[in-house]
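STRUCTURE:
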């Protein structure tokens, strides 16, 4: 088993490079997917009213299809037929623009808009959002092709333990956690407690199905004499 890794020449050269490399998997930050999404919408606006109508129909079909996939619901023959037609008329062209072989994209480093994740999912170009830090080598959680939920950073990775502290902070423990910061014992003790839990500095929740969702940074919490409250506009992922 082997793989070839390629690096884009620049963010502006990504479309051309994808056509040359024809990647099967691609990892990037949300900003790239935002630019790709915006370019698609710009092209749609330049099309005829009929082409716009077909595009929006295809997206609505794709959203219903991927929603059923996400919820492990049955996909009937009628929906499957419409999805196949939507792919032939619209989504196949998007797939060709990214090289024609993409299995999935990976996103990390910043929050990915659920709207963008749902659009690419509807088009059959799944973006799998994950979460982690340098100190966690770097993975804590990640969505998978067979287990994903838009708006989350996925289920906890195998071998990793995660708990939500009383103040809402995400804490992780496992073989992926660093030993410590080099020659910085005080910082290490502050980051990793006596039970081996690494304190990420992020605030989040784990839903009833085990998907992790990040809602804010701990440093953004406002502490008062009575209660701890979150900012009026918390970070959404």
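SEQUENCE:
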């Amino acid at each position: 088993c082997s793989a070839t890794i390629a690096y884009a020449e620049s963010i502006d050269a990504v479309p051309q490079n994808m056509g040359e490399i024809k990647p099967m998997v691609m990892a990037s930050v949300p900003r790239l997917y935002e630019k790709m999404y915006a370019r698609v919408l710009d092209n749609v606006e330049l099309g005829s009213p009929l082409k716009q109508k077909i595009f929006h129909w295809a997206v609505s079909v794709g959203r219903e299809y991927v929603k059923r996939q996400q919820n492990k619901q049955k996909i009937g023959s009628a929906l499957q037929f419409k999805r196949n037609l939507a792919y032939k008329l619209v989504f196949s062209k998007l797939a060709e623009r990214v090289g024609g072989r993409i299995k999935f994209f990976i996103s990390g480093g910043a929050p990915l808009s659920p709207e963008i994740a749902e659009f690419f999912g509807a088009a059959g170009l799944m973006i799998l959002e994950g979460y982690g830090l340098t100190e966690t080598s770097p993975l804590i959680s990640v969505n998978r092709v067979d287990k994903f939920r838009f708006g989350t950073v996925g289920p906890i990775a195998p071998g990793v333990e995660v708990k939500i502290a009383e103040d809402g902070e995400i804490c992780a423990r496992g073989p992926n956690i660093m030993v410590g910061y080099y020659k910085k014992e005080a910082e290490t003790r502050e980051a990793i407690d006596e039970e081996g839990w690494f304190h990420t500095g992020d605030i989040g929740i784990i839903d009833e199905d085990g998907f992790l969702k990040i809602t804010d940074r701990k440093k953004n919490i406002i502490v008062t004499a009575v209660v701890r409250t979150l900012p009026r506009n918390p970070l959404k992922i």
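REMARK: The chain has two domains: 11-127, 151-229.
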